[in-house]
Amino acid sequence: MSLAVAIQMDPIQTIDINADSTFVLALEAQKRGYGLYHYLPRDLSLRDGRVMARARPLEVRREKGNHATLGAPEVIDLRTMDVVLMRQDPPFDMSYITATHLLQHVHPETLVVNDPVNVRNAPEKLFVTHFEGLLPPTLITSDRIAIDAFRDEHKDIIVKPLYGNGGAGVFHLQPGDENLGSLMEMFTQFYREPVIVQRYLPEVRKGDKRIILIDGKPAGAINRVPSAGEARSNMHAGGRPEQAALTRREQEICEMIGPALREQGLLFVGIDVIGDYLTEINVTSPTGLQEINRFDGVCLEAQIWDAIEGRLNGRRPGAA
């Protein structure tokens, strides 16, 4: 299958080619003979119902410092593309939300991965609240009295921004910690949204597992172990990756959420599990492909493109 693919992402020149998941998706697409374009979210425009992007033809190679060649800019109508990969990094702010509204004009005629409507409707820390019994004790609020009552009940808590990413702004408050007042003042100053407060899970010392689901089915996992003196396990925050297999509980979690992911067109998803609890469902720009590939000797990006091709074939006249 020959496809025209536009990749909406951050500047490709600055990525870490040994960690970036979008890079290996582009490598695999190029290997399959797809035509690639690269553009930034700010290069999108909408005029008279047509979504255009000032994009540049893209070639990629695994050569550090020489990993991408971009051709001359050209304005492309995204309706002429077969696939758009929406892969810019969060934060999930109004800029991100606006991009989903623009891409909604071309999807599903052009397959946008992930579905822009359901990306908009599934922010990581809120989407998970729709699956009963999977979250640890959790409070989402701006009400300081409610936060104090939650802390009185659970003692050891985590406080984090509702739309944060990469472990940024995550605080662990142990019993007796006197910084909650100052912390809430800081959150109020920088964010208009409520905060998310959760019971601290001591199991995080053994790791926070990232599980990749492709079209609703688990495809691989990696354990991320926080460094000494650090509450966050994200690799951006110094978490140590370890090879991991799925436990029975994690299989159950995947089975519970998988049908909803498939139905909503969330084809490439990364979930985070600590102990027996699901803490996040990442649909915006999930990562972890390269780490899992190295540990397990697999090629998850090939599985993702197989799933994309399957979606496209399923839409063609006469497809089974």
From TrEMBL:
SUPFAM superfamilies: Glutathione synthetase ATP-binding domain-like, PreATP-grasp domain. Its EC number is 6.3.2.3. Residues 125-309 form the ATP-grasp domain. InterPro entries: ATP-grasp, ATP_grasp_subdomain_1, Glut_synth_pro, GSHS_ATP-bd, GSHS_N, PreATP-grasp_dom_sf. It holds the Pfam family GSH-S_N. It is an enzyme of class 6 (ligase). Keywords: ATP-binding, Glutathione biosynthesis, Ligase, Magnesium, Manganese, Metal-binding, Nucleotide-binding. Pathway: Sulfur metabolism; glutathione biosynthesis; glutathione from L-cysteine and L-glutamate: step 2/2. GO terms for molecular function: ATP binding; glutathione synthase activity; metal ion binding. The keyword Ligase applies. Its cofactor is Mn(2+); Mg(2+). GO terms for cellular component: cytoplasm. It catalyses: gamma-L-glutamyl-L-cysteine + glycine + ATP = glutathione + ADP + phosphate + H(+). The keyword Magnesium applies. Belongs to the prokaryotic GSH synthase family. This is Glutathione synthetase. The lineage of its organism: Bacteria, Pseudomonadati, Pseudomonadota, Alphaproteobacteria, Sneathiellales.
